[in-house]
Amino acid sequence: MKQIQLNNGVSMPQLGYGVFQIDDLAQCEQAVLDALQTGYRLIDTAATYGNEAAVGRAIAKSGVPRQDIFVSSKVWIQDTGYEKTMASFQKTLANLQTDYLDLYLIHMPYGDYYGSWRAMTELYRAGRIRAIGVCNFLPDRLVDLIQSFDVMPAVNQIELHPFSQRRALRDLMAKYRIAPMAWAPFAEGRNDLFTHPVLKAIGDRYGKTPAQVTLRWLRQRNIIAIPKSVHLARIRQNFAVDDFTLSGADMAAIAALDTGHPLILAVDTCEEAYRLHHITFVQ
């Protein structure tokens, strides 16, 4: 498994397994078990997904040593702030049946994320978290955070796929060696990604699917990806992207698919701020 070295020296698998929207907890537990047995060693969850405990059970059952699994979770808007983040972190550890996290992220650029960052920095320095980062931070908020604290994010998890390639944001992140981590690498199927003629034509040349082409494109762009599927065949298929290399012409063809804007989540709009602030959960 190819590793990405983060800006604090920690190594992180470049390909992982994500559990967003796997609400059936038994199904989530089995899917994470299948992913670990397939060879995935990065598992990404979040408090607001409601499935951390299922992930924890799968890790415990897998037989894979905890130190060999890179576990990532996130603090939600309702739990931003120093004290709330500390409490949410402890619940996350209990759910995941672990005494540390490999990566802890601020889930959205809203609420008292300054207070959250202070808490996360303290936990990081205490060895409770190996790396800290953010999700969905656009350039202004990212630069503000970097300029305001002496520990910078190691990762920014963002919507990133062939139709939203976030080049300006990635250029800024490269300046600070902040690793891009792609959520929804398949664009949640939008723009017919799984049958898209450009991606299909490229895949046909290598005997690969459009999904595998997409993951290989991310791999060659040094982007971390966390594809999700609950189907064992697809979990295995998504893992099988090390046996081919896209050509320069392939990469250029995929670059041309960029729309220049997100398809799923526009965090810089009032509508999303209102909507996301009203999502609450019981951890």
How would you concisely characterize the structure shown here?
The chain is of the alpha/beta class.
Structural account:
- The protein is an alpha/beta fold.
- 41% of the residues lie in helices and 13% in strands.
- It contains eleven helices and ten strands.
- It has helices spanning 25-38, 52-62, 82-96, 113-125, 139-148, 167-175, 197-206, 210-220, 232-239, 248-255, 270-277; strands spanning 3-5, 11-13, 17-18, 42-44, 70-75, 103-106, 132-135, 155-159, 179-183, 224-225.
- It has an eight-stranded parallel β-sheet with strand order 3-4-5-6-7-8-9-10, with helices on one face. A two-stranded antiparallel ribbon has the order 1-2.
- The longest helix is centred in the N-terminal third of the chain and has 15 residues, at 82-96.
- The radius of gyration is 18 Å and the shape is globular.
- The model has no long low-confidence stretch (mean pLDDT 98).
